[in-house]
Amino acid sequence: MDITGICTVLRGGARRLAVHTAQQKNAALSCVIGALDGARRGILAANEVDAAKAEAQGMKRGLVDRLRLTDARIDGIIDSIRVVIAQTDPVGQCVAGWNTPNGLRIRQVRVPLGVAAIIYESRPNVTADAFALAYKSGNAILLRGSSSALNSNKAIAQAIVRGLKDAGADGVPEAVYLADSGSRDEVAQILAAEGLIDAALPRGGAALIRHVVSTAKIPVIETGSGVCHLFVDSDADIEQAARIAENAKLQRPGVCNAIETLVVHADIAAAFLPRLEAVFAGRAEFRCDDASYAVLAAAAEHAGRSGCVTHAAEADFGCEFLDDILAVKTVSSLEEAVSYINAHNTQHSESICTQSLAHARYFQQMIDAACVYVNASTRFTDGGEFGFGAELGISTQKLHVRGPMGLSALTTTKYLIDGEGQIR
Hints:
The chain is α/β, with parallel strands linked by helices. The chain contains 14 helices and 16 strands. The model has no long low-confidence stretch (mean pLDDT 95).
């Protein structure tokens, strides 16, 4: 891959895009929607090749689900772009403004980063999502998906470029490039592209993120793996908590906002855990500490499902399973729950089920995570659910941006100062 040549073209595209109006960018994105819709059959056929190969290679069910596209998921991609179109263009927004005593007029305004790169695994919808957010925020983007989704990503990227060309003067096809050789050397070249790429975003599992953060010579906006927890407090509504746990674990176990560990207050464990076992009904393996094992094993044996309850190893606590596996931990207090979660999480998404407002506020204040829920599933940590349309990922770092990353995540600011001859 000629990283210098590619980034030179992308930089030119970014400069063209920087002077396009919101109306022009929206018109181009509308043409991309039309191209994606028109390429639907080809995209689904390419995705079927990727999914079949993944299944043949023994990829986990949850990860195959992340990879797979359907008509409904393509509709979702298109709907996400429509939401991006409807959003206010962040470029040029005035963040702050004031006059100094000597008459200088200072404005802090949002501007694009320039050229961004995203390195991502499995999910081909990221190809369209990342492009749409980058384009609307005035950035060029270098896309590098995983080899497991290579055919899908190629089909989507080809449709995107076709749509930008269809947009005529409103389109800037030079603002997007898919690295599609499948070679791991592409990642190394991207991460070493000092002066060519303004920021890189890893989106995927813990190994990918660690590799990007530890080896990059360019700025990185770190997204995190999702070791997410649900804490069932001593006064939780048992039925509500069981439904939330079911949704947070089983709806899509292979995604980063699914819970991996259930933390249960000891005072409610005897009442709650049998109900949890009944709701899950053998659809997940429970890996339990000693206290929760005693209750869940008895409940599962009574229901004829004893094989789904096992003793946890220490490594199970803090593990991102991305599978139909749930670690279960008992604690004796809210404070112990908070301490345990902060020691084992990845600062992604955490939730508490409680009827105590004081406990809810303490949990939200003391938990160190990008998103902290009360009586709700962690599955809502998502750009679409937050109203952003598409998302670049979930940032778990504390500088620049945190949580679901929408349009403003790919902008920075600069100061514009107007004077009338002032000198210092």
